[in-house]
Amino acid sequence: xNDAALVEVDxxxxxxxxxxxxxxxxxxxxxxxxxxxxxxxGAGKTTTMQILSGNLAPSTGRIRIAGHDLLxxxxxxKQAIGYLPEQPxxxxxxxxxxxxxxxxxxxxxxxxxRRAAREAAKMKCGLSDVGRRLIGNLSKGYQxxxxxxxxxxxxxxxxxxxxxxxxxxxxxxxxxxxLVRELGKEHGVILSTHILPEVQATxxxxxxINKGSLVLNDSIEGLSRHMQSSALSVALRQPPxxxxxxxxxxxxxxxxxxxxxxxxxxxxxTDPTDALVDLAVQKRWGLYELQPERASLEDIxxxxxxxxxxxxxxxxx
Amino acid sequence: xxxTIARNELRRMFLSPLAWVIxxxxxxxxxxxxxSSVQYxxxxxSRLLSMGSEDGVTAVVVAxxxxxxxxxxxxxxxxxxxxxxADERRNKTLSLxxxxxxxxxxxxxxxxxxxxxFLWLILAMVALMPLSLLAGGTLDFGLFGAGLLGLALLxxxxxxxGLFMSTLTQNQSVAxxxxxxLLLLFWILDWAGRGSGASxxxxxxxxxxxxEPFLQGIFDTSDAAYLVLFILTFLMLSIRRLDMDRxxx
Lengths: 317, 249
Known about the structure:
By secondary structure, chain A is α/β, with parallel strands linked by helices. Chain A has helices spanning 45-52, 74-79, 96-106, 111-124, 140-152, 170-186, 196-202, 220-227, 242-246, 273-283, 297-306, and strands at residues 7-16, 19-29, 34-38, 60-65, 68-69, 81-84, 158-162, 188-193, 205-210, 213-219, 231-236, 251-258, 261-266, 287-292. In chain A, helix 3 (96-106) crosses helix 4 (111-124) and helix 4 packs across helix 5 (140-152). The longest helix of chain B has 35 residues, at 17-51. The model of chain B has no long low-confidence stretch (mean pLDDT 89).
């Protein structure tokens, strides 16, 4: 068994009639990795998750999970997956304990070990106090946790979570994110979301999918380099002639925002900040604001996902 | 694995009031029918004896009871079967089964088994009524046994149709109406061509024509084979249909 790659997706695509929901994507994920799967609505996130979990058959492509081909050896492959769909698949008329016992049985946990598996899953998801309550009477957040407990009860190497924090309150969101990070230490986690801070908070690898195609596949560190923007936001009380600033070494262009607010775009190789401050003091421009601009993940996201529709926005330069 | 699924289905069935209401209503109606025919038998008993008829209590009371039970359950079976898959599809809980390491066949058989178990529970309770007559007499166990076997197979056939209809839709009422319609159609299929002597292929396909011999105490392997093939056909169709959920789109 290949421990390096838990999930290998190769040339995966899926079409609904003439619509390509997922268009020839390939990626892989290793143990101890939390992969954030980002994309606007309708980009193909959920379709990809459903294919990975065996709920949908791919039109083309190969998926290997923990060394087992999902189509050729579905039993062994599915045993290595825990899947939490968008809507937690819970039976409202059962109690939490009854439900989790059933899930343990479905995942072929030996009868003698089911109780221990259930208690461990409940402990991890903060469900220890509600074991005897009906799932239908629990709040949305607790139902989500039950769904999560279901996904991890058989300790699968791969956990697939489709928008796990939708509809939760901020405290629960923090708890779930914490849990995902914990899980990410021992398992491989694929997390789909459209909430960007969630990715920054929990994932160490990011993929952005747009209209069925992967448009970005990078680590969080790599992404931070993307986010190193090369722009300065400056406010001056007595703004000089713009040409004077443009003549500074490294400055590529200057944009006047009015009221003495300027945006300077520079060559990332030569940071003109020091030169600019010196000059401002020397010429008494009255510098009172100076801020390096950072492109947020949101900027990159918007930039990448709207690229095909219109020209790139300037602030992500 | 099949039994894990079946047990869970049965448990959830009995957690809903529907299962209990169905049991209560079916029992009440059949008990009423049973008592009326017992009363009728007591009335005509002496006449039967004087006519030298060989019909005993089993032929006069038990066979009509099982015949009536089949009609009542034809109405009731769709109500039990409708939720099996349709409800899970609506509540989006099917993905729990699809992403678990179980095959489509195991899912279908598990659900089917739970439905058959429920219907056979009704059958067992119906069978208790004639058995109560043992307190005051004896029964023709050959006739009674054949009738029970026939009804058991018939109910299993109802269940297979019901399960298949439930896999077609996410709306429970649609599944129930569809099941009822299809079962009734198979029931009355021999009406076509009636009176023209040989009722031909439609008569052969009619499920009623394969149930009635059992009630007369005739166990014909071709009747049993018909019902078994009927069941297998609809189970296969159910498996195919659920597979389409994964493949289609």
